[in-house]
Amino acid sequence: xxxxxxxxxxTIIGSGIGGLSTGIILCLLNYNVTVxxxxxxxxxxxxxxxxxxxxxxxxxxxxxxLGEDEPLGKIFHMLGISVNDLFERMGLDGVIDxxxxxxxSFDLPTGIDAYEKNLHAAFPGDKTAIDxxxxxxxxxxxxxxxxxxxxxxGDPFKNIDYLDSIGEYLQKHDxxxxxxxxxxxxxxxxxxxxxxxxxIFHHMVLASYLFSSWRxxxxxxxxxxxxxxxxxHLGGRIILSDSAEKIIxxxxxxxxxxxxxxxxxxxxxxxxxxxxxxxxxxxxxxALKVSYRQRIxxxxxxxxxxxxxVSVDARRHQEIPHNIYxxxxxxxxxxxNGIFYQLRRGDAKGANLLSIITKSxxxxxxxxxxxKSGLRGREYEEKKLSIxxxxxxxxxxxxxxxxxxxxxxxxxxxxLRDYVCAPEGSCYGVMRSVGQLLKIASLNxxxxxxxxxxxxxxxxxxxxxxxxxxxxxxxxxxxxxxxAEIIKAMAAL
Length: 493
Ligand SMILES: Cc1cc2nc3c(=O)[nH]c(=O)nc-3n(C[C@H](O)[C@H](O)[C@H](O)COP(=O)(O)OP(=O)(O)OC[C@H]3O[C@@H](n4cnc5c(N)ncnc54)[C@H](O)[C@@H]3O)c2cc1C
Hints:
The protein is of the alpha/beta class and 493 residues long. Helices cover 38% and strands 20% of the residues. It has three domains: 184 residues, 3-Layer(bba) Sandwich (FAD/NAD(P)-binding domain); 105 residues, no CATH class; 106 residues, no CATH class. The longest helix has 22 residues. The protein binds flavin-adenine dinucleotide (FAD).
């Protein structure tokens, strides 16, 4: 780890959950903090948008571990943000996710005991594999509940056993194809195929939803505003509609940030809560060794998605308190061809919102790679609509007649690329696959004094992973000893 920096002015690039949570902690530690955001409104992927009077989610559909004694609940408490103002519990009907396969279904419940019971009932021939998975899951979830988890960052790179692929682990225990597919969903929530997903990331995501699962009470924009307001209240400054253009170095050290508007902000420390490839673009070529630069450029991204937002008649299609995954088993496929559905409260006029999400590769949209959002032309719009209609027809098999429903928005990997600068429209940033772990581990050691990464690319994706990435950035800025003191003091408040 770098020597802690004696900093006063800290500038954070990006106002997603990663940037704002880093900003809140640094303000609590009395630094002068400025967040720079290229978009007109703060929040990045956590922010929702409105179509036909309905709030549509982008990157927060459900979140785990927000209970009082659970990791994310404790973090929210430290940040001074009320969980209950923003979120409500899911799974009170006993189901968090329902996985629908062609000839069976599986329910993800709350709690490891209930999960174990459901696994044994669904896959009676898989006792050895299930026992092995549950043993690791209990160990990892126990560590996540340990008070030292936030201080040591639950450092995923510490326990070498858990870095192996969960897919290989299951095969070693002769898991049936059905069990492998059930286990493939938490891998997908990391943006990785089962065969490439490190066991630690798989089990951390799974454990967090098994602790307790939550949906937004209102919408992502409210969440974004609550985070932004908390940051401002603590003295933080947010500059909107101006993107970071160039990191200014003096004698190899950070001295400021130049914005697109021409404004220059003095800074002793810069935290890049953006993708590392975006960070590369902000540095002069000679600022980094060719090998480091190349390592970042060669990183494989997580896959993109297409998202279809549909307004449905609320009387005929009431809110469903759990999520649905529609999965077709194809033994030859590397990973499941799955579709995620969430049917939620919509607007006061009697419409609910059905969100449909499925994988969509960047290459599928390469024809429009050099176009901008809103200006891609008719052929692009037609292609989006045609995919959306196919997805809607498929949704009809799950939800019944959707004939009088209305598609109110469709977004593709290109939309995400343009909205938050996600290379290749990647959903969860760089891919945390077994093969890339070592390269990723070295990412956080940006070889420039005063420059740090935060957000989903610093540790892990998702709301929990991104905030853990922010904690990691702060730990590196202030040093382990001070960080441990601070976390203990914040936890006791
Ligand atoms: C479709 C989808 C569904 C998801 N669902 C869930 C879910 O249900 N639960 C969950 O936990 N996670 C979910 N995620 C993942 C989660 O949303 C992300 O992991 C998390 O929001 C990432 O936060 P971040 O701050 O790292 O990045 P971002 O939110 O991408 O923030 C980066 C910010 O930096 C800004 N920026 C970029 N370049 C510049 C620049 N040069 N200058 C200034 N600003 C810049 C961007 O505009 C953006 O605001 C989902 C993601 C997607 C895409």
